[in-house]
Write a structure and sequence with these properties.
Length: 352
């Protein structure tokens, strides 16, 4: 902990000369744990810039305790454990519009906040074994913050604090209770009558989006359409085929047989919906979801497309970028990443 204190002192002395907003993420924790349920770390987020930042508690970032894939964990051989956590729909613009204080963390220059994370909820170490591990925030970890000039979301890439945290893990390497974490019967689970009525309308709308998107991509064999270019980059047959294959898989999903759970344990004010990628057929919809419009780019119908794309059987899309501007930039700058970005599938389907 002395090294972290020294780091914070250094940051406090440096903020006055920083010319731009800046963040740093440092991971600390115990040197050794027995059994994975004791594998908990603290991610400390430090404002290294010279202005206050109103940060959104993005479920994919260190400010949220949701079990998402935000840490780089490796053993002595450089191997990483299996990710078993959740993939989440998150709309920065909607969170800003709602203005719920619980959805934000404000850090003044030099100020920091530490959030505890239970790594056993997100990772299974069975394949990588007992022994020494290093844990750090993933390189390129980004935060959304509120731009005070426009009251819209902006993105900021944080620095990763080093050295990484080192921890020895022995005993059990996978939790045995997670298979029972949210068991439910088919159909609607823990949903009110109003929520059931909303889903009765939203689910067919989501099915229609998938069907229309699948038809559109099949009619665009080279990826020449403006819609493909906007969300997945310049025409390219291999990338087009990747996208087409995923939409075709999604079009075969029978949503009438899915379980729709309205009280998932990882529902937070800023979370719209989430799935466990390997647990096909169960979607967790949160209170925020029901505040979205029925149709549109960020809507109840398009969120269904987003969540379907996360399932491993549908291609296993991840959450690299959120929001229209950042997803458009992703298609231009890194189209090979855009074809694995859930929000890109969501927006493509909404725009067909």
């Amino acid at each position: 902990m002395h090294s972290l204190s020294a780091l914070l002192a250094f940051v406090a002395s440096a903020v006055m000369v920083s010319a731009t907003p800046g963040l740093l993420v440092q991971v600390t924790g115990p040197a050794a744990v027995h059994d994975i349920q004791n594998l908990q770390v603290v991610a400390t987020v430090v404002n290294t810039g010279n202005e206050s930042l109103k940060l959104l508690k993005d479920p994919h970032g260190p400010l949220s305790q949701s079990p998402t894939d935000i840490f780089n964990i490796t053993n002595g051989s450089g191997d990483s454990p299996d990710f078993i956590g959740i993939r989440v729909y998150f709309a920065p613009s909607y969170s800003i519009e709602q203005g719920n204080p619980d959805s934000f963390t404000v850090l003044a220059p030099g100020e920091s906040v530490g959030i505890q994370h239970d790594l056993s909820q997100a990772y299974n170490l069975t394949s990588t074994g007992s022994g020494q591990y290093t844990v750090a925030a993933k390189e390129g970890v980004s935060f959304y913050y509120v731009d005070p000039a426009t009251n819209t979301s902006a993105s900021l890439q944080a620095d990763v604090g080093y050295p990484a945290h080192n921890v020895s893990v022995t005993g059990s390497l996978a939790r045995t209770d997670l298979s029972k974490r949210e068991l439910s019967a088919r159909d609607y689970n823990y949903c009110s009558d109003d929520q059931k009525a909303a889903l009765d309308i939203a689910i067919p709308a989501g099915v229609a989006l998938v069907a229309n998107a699948n038809a559109a991509i099949q009619e665009d064999p080279n990826g020449n359409s403006p819609n493909f270019v906007r969300w997945f980059g310049q025409p390219d047959v291999p990338r087009r085929n990747h996208v087409a294959g995923n939409f075709q898989r999604m079009s075969g999903n029978v949503l009438a047989d899915f379980t729709w759970n309205c009280e998932g344990q990882h529902c937070e004010p800023e979370t719209g919906a989430y799935v466990y990628p390997t647990e096909y057929g169960t979607v967790y919809v949160c209170a925020t979801y029901f505040g979205l419009p029925l149709t549109g780019r960020d809507s109840q119908a398009s969120v269904i497309v987003h969540e379907l794309s996360h399932y491993t059987v549908n291609g296993g899309a991840q959450d690299f970028k959120y929001g229209v501007p950042l997803c458009e930039e992703l298609a231009v700058d890194l189209p090979i990443v855009a074809i694995s970005n859930a929000a890109s599938y969501q927006y493509y389907a909404a725009d067909v």
